[in-house]
Amino acid sequence: MRPIMIDIQDLDKSYGGLPVVRGLNLAVNQGECFGLLGPNGAGKTTTLRLCLGLTDPDGGSITIAGLPVPIQAREARVRIGVVPQMDNLDPDFTVAENLIVYGRYFGISAATMRRRLPELLAFASLGAKRDAKIGELSGGMKRRLMLARALVNDPDLIFLDEPTTGLDPQARHLIWERLKLLLGQGKTLFLTTHFMDEAERLCDRLAVLDDGVKIAEGTPRALIAEHIEPEVIEVYGEDALHWRNANADLPDTRFEQSGETIFAYTHNAIPALARLKDRKARVRYLHRPANLEDLFLKLTGREMRD
């Protein structure tokens, strides 16, 4: 059994009398990637701030690498790396200088950091950008630099808050590759993301928060199997709603609507596919296996959250 890197028990936090995190219990094992999912305002970022000791809880306990937080948050942060959601690189420094200066926060000398620079820059694929200013970097390069910066203290645990937000597909895949390398080195990752494919690809286990409450926890595939029918048909086009109404008698089929798209969830897609092939309605369709996005939308709803 692997040691527990993050242990959260009965965690509560409110702002202005409004509960943001309510009775949260989580345990993250050493060497795994754990995902925290939820719509806007679910309590994800507050949970990260509580784990880092940046916010004091109203109740419950947090232990990071065996150290109680916030009481020993400073000591715990020595073993932690953080990749924040927003770019907070220093624009006045070069790529190398951003890493060297950040090392000072952990008492790492400039000489030591200069020796480690080639390794960190190679990990981030930024060797050719060593002397570039931050304004010269693309969005993907900045995210890779922030990931490299989170490694300057050789942490055991890395918190990643929406690490690929705003990146194009190629940049996202490169970040995913780097995160898998870290897992291969035995690092523990605690990830928040709005990209369900990212969570499904990276996370060993995950929890879903809604309104500050944990509503599901487990491996991605186990949660999908528990909550969602195995097959999904997306029907869209001018007559999608008419098609749904005309086929409400399909056996063992659950319908949902999002905008102009009808989602048919079923254990046996053959009858629905047969009717779609014989259709006269003006619709298009996509047949696919259920995924983590289906789970997320079923548990948290399809309405927009501000």
The oligomerization state is: single chain
Radius of gyration: 22 Å
Helix-strand makeup class: alpha/beta
Q: What's the tally of helices?
A: 11
Poorly predicted tracts of residues? none
So, CATH architecture of the largest domain? 3-Layer(aba) Sandwich
Number of domains: 2
In angstroms, what separates the terminal alpha carbons? 40 Å
Shape: globular
CATH class of the largest domain reads Alpha Beta
Question: Can you summarize the main beta sheet?
Answer: 6 strands, mixed
**Count of beta strands:** 14
Secondary-structure element order, as H and E? EEEHEEHEHHHEHEHEEHEHEEHEH
The strand order across the widest sheet is 6-7-8-3-9-10
Q: Within the CATH hierarchy, at the fold level, what is the topology of the largest domain? A: Rossmann fold
Please, what is the average pLDDT? 93
Name the helicity range: 25-40%
Describe the structure.
This protein is of the alpha/beta class. It has helices at 44-51, 73-77, 95-104, 110-123, 139-149, 169-184, 196-202, 220-227, 240-246, 270-277, 292-300, and strands at residues 4-15, 18-29, 33-37, 59-64, 67-69, 80-83, 157-161, 188-192, 205-210, 213-218, 231-236, 253-258, 261-266, 284-289. The protein folds into 2 domains: 4-219, P-loop containing nucleotide triphosphate hydrolases (Rossmann fold); 229-289, Alpha-Beta Plaits. The mean pLDDT is 93.
